[in-house]
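User: Could you go from structure to sequence for me? I need the amino acid at each position, not a summary. Structure tokens:
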């Protein structure tokens, strides 16, 4: 990954590789069978957390020499992740991890954050929001907003931040941008969603499941996890059922999703909604790839290639900010 910083981002493949097909098949016969058997009680949640942490650590390890700086201040928890040779500067990435609001943490996503830091040459702050079932809705959403505001209070201009996240982190990002009291002038330069979960009823996932079975988990098993966060809340709550009517005020989106996963329809939905309401969203569907394949380079053959495309999207977003600033300066001087 270190050598890929200067690489040209490849196009999205048009068909799955033989390795991708084999990986999905093996995952379906192993992890896909296990996830449906884990009960969603206290013991089952502990098992799921240990299982996923082991997978992330083994298949998406953290690069040697990565600098990790823990943060615990004013109710904000998380960690700065800086790939080797990356230094703090005027710009940063704010990362919101996923796994159904229940399982993962900043630590499980350290490897992905380090690789994102390496390709973008930017420090990445991964917010460690509170997890369900110990902390149900809106704890995670509140922590994500608190973390973003803390980042701005540290001296970063909103236009010098890109927000990125995966799975349930995608829902939390869209809530932050569209359903909280974050003013449009505090929007980040761009948003990157990896395999986003958008419909918390999992109806879109069930519909997708009728077309193809997700290799890693079923819609019903995923719903049991999500329900631990949303319990006793109406599915029509405005911070759970996302509203993109103000998408024209949101930053541009890049959405990446694997073609084999049950959240493929969620990815299509968020892109369609953002564009329909005057925003800008680009969808990339990666053939044969599984859920958040970018986090598992030892498993997903296209993980590094996808991050190079994320890098180019982020660079273009910051270039647009720079061009806008230059235009404003020219107008002021004329």
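Assistant: Here is the amino acid at each position, in order:
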């Amino acid at each position: 990954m270190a050598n890929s910083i200067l690489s040209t981002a490849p196009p999205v493949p048009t068909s799955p590789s033989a390795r991708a097909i084999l990986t999905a098949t093996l995952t379906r016969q192993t992890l896909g069978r296990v996830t449906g058997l884990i009960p969603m009680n206290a013991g089952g949640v502990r098992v799921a957390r240990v299982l996923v942490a082991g997978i992330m650590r083994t298949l998406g390890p953290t690069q040697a020499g990565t600098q990790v700086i823990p943060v615990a201040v004013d109710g904000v928890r998380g960690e700065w992740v800086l790939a080797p040779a990356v230094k703090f500067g005027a710009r940063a990435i704010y990362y919101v991890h996923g796994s159904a609001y229940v399982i993962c943490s900043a630590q499980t996503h350290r490897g992905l954050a380090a690789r994102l830091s390496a390709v973008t040459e930017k420090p990445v702050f991964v917010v460690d929001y509170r997890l369900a079932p110990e902390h149900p809705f809106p704890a995670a959403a509140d922590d994500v907003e608190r973390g973003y505001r803390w980042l701005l209070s540290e001296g970063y201009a909103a236009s010098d931040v890109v927000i990125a996240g995966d799975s349930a982190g995608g829902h939390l990002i869209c809530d932050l941008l569209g359903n909280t009291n974050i003013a449009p002038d505090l929007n980040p330069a761009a948003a990157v969603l990896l395999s986003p979960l958008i419909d918390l009823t999992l109806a879109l996932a069930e519909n997708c499941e009728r077309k193809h079975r997700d290799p890693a988990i079923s819609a019903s098993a995923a719903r049991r996890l999500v329900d631990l966060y949303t319990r006793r809340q109406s599915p029509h709550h405005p911070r759970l059922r996302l509203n993109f009517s103000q998408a024209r005020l949101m930053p541009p989106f890049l959405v990446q999703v694997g073609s084999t996963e049950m959240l493929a329809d969620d990815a299509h939905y968020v892109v369609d909604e953002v564009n329909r309401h005057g925003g800008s969203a680009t969808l990339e569907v990666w053939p044969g790839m599984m859920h958040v394949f970018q986090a598992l380079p030892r498993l997903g053959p296209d993980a590094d290639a996808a991050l190079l495309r994320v890098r180019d999207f982020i660079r273009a977003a910051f270039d647009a900010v720079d061009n806008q600033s230059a235009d404003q300066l020219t107008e002021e001087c004329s």
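One structural detail worth keeping in mind: Residues 2-333 form a domain with the Rossmann fold fold (CATH 3.40.50.1820).
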